[in-house]
Amino acid sequence: xxxxxxxxxxxxxxxxxxxxxxxxxxxxxxxxxxxxxxxxxxxxxxxxxxxxxxxxxxxxxxxxxxxxxxxxxxxxxxxxxxxxxxxxxxxxxxxxxxxxxxxxxxxxxxxxxxxxxxxx
Length: 120
Hints:
By secondary structure, the protein is α/β, with parallel strands linked by helices. The chain has helices spanning 16-31, 64-74, 81-86, 103-110; strands at 4-9, 35-40, 76-80, 98-101, 115-119. A 5-stranded parallel beta sheet has the order 4-3-2-1-5.
């Protein structure tokens, strides 16, 4: 089993089931002791902002704010640099603990030893 998991989520409210699956898998992995790095790209970028996750609704799914809280407590959440720029999101705008980084960091994390990368 990979010791590290890098998950890139590209979907947000536009594809709620895919979005929820990514956050759920990431949170379950953290709870299982896996080193998790979740990347917010595309429409999921909005969930880096305070209060935005509370607006997300999907029946029979764990609340997104709870999943984000568990990820920040035991893993990493990164907002894509270009995605942030396109949405005029800056470091001062994001939830405490969310970092902004680019493709080079994503590639480094994804290609590290004992790492599995997933894209939703």
